[in-house]
Amino acid sequence: MARILIVEDEPDIALGLQQDLVLEGYEVDVVGDGESALERVATGSFDLILLDVLLPGKDGFAVCRELRRSGTRTPIILLTAKSHEAEKVLGLELGADDYVTKPFSPVELRARIKAVLRRGANGSPEVFRFGEFEVDFDRFELRRCGEPVELTPIEFKLLAAFVRNRRSVLTRRQLLDKVWGRDTHVIDRVVDTHIGNLRRKIEPDPERPAFLLSVRGFGYRFEG
Ligand code: CA
Fold first, then answer.
1. Is 67 exposed, middle or buried (0-12, 13-18, 19+ CB in 10 A)?
2. 152-195 pLDDT, tens digit each
3. How many of the other CB atoms lie within 10 Å of CB of 51?
4. What spacing in Å lies between the alpha carbon of 57 and ligand 1's midpoint?
5. Residue 86 pLDDT
6. What is the 3-state secondary structure (H, E, C) of 54-112?
7. Please, which residues have CB within 8 angstroms of residue 70's CB and are 6 or more apart in sequence?
8. How far is the CA of 18 from the centre of ligand 1 (A)?
9. Residue 198 above 90 pLDDT?
10. How far is the CA of 133 from the centre of ligand 1 (A)?
11. 32 Cα to the center of ligand 1, angstroms
């Protein structure tokens, strides 16, 4: 049974949705604002999040962005107002999987939910987003605003190591192990050279990195 989190501040809509989805056989949780949504996702495991855009405090876009930035890959369907055509697109760029325009029919929403869950079950592409970039682990590809960025295999492996260990410091030795392999005779300086090359491809200002930070005396840390 799939678990769905509904993030909706209007009690009538939230209750209607909940009843409908419970009848469909889903397990359903409801929260009424963005902060609670982030907390609930952090502590529970959901198969899908139905996320209203207009919420008190932190709106649905901010919640979506934070979830994706923190590495949460749970599928998200945004519930948008009809007047927000531009917002829909923006929402999808933020990492949402689909959107439904309010007022929506229960039939339409159920169909979208099923489609998104099916995609998830078939192994949705493993993609991590930071800034204007997407790292596609299935295709070994980095894209900027949808356009592929050419990386060498070493650069891709480095980036992957950072993304998978984001916010942790990685020493040059650890990077050598992860990227070149344990028995490598490559020297530490080589790591710095490749990091420099990678920075030129992903940093808006390579001299002042925003993503790939140096941690003096230790190594590097990725903030994505
Ligand atoms: Ca709302």
1. buried
2. 999 999 998 898 788 889 999 999 988 888 777 888 889 999 99
3. 26
4. 11
5. 56
6. CCCCCCHHHHHHHHHHCCCCCCEEEEEECCCHHHHHHHHHCCCCEEEEECCCHHHHHHH
7. none
8. 15
9. yes
10. 29
11. 9
At residue 128 the predicted structure's pLDDT band, cuts being 50, 70 and 90, is: confident
Cα–ligand 1 centroid distance for 59 (angstroms): 9
C-beta of residue 39 within 8 angstroms of C-beta of residue 11: no
Euclidean distance between CA atoms 185 and 165, whole angstroms: 23
Question: What tokens does 134 get?
Answer: 């997407």
pLDDT tens-digit map of 116-127: 888 765 554 577
- Give the distance (Å) from ligand 1 centre to CA of residue 10: 6
CA 52 to centroid of ligand 1, rounded, Å:
6
Cα(63) to centroid(ligand 1), Å: 13
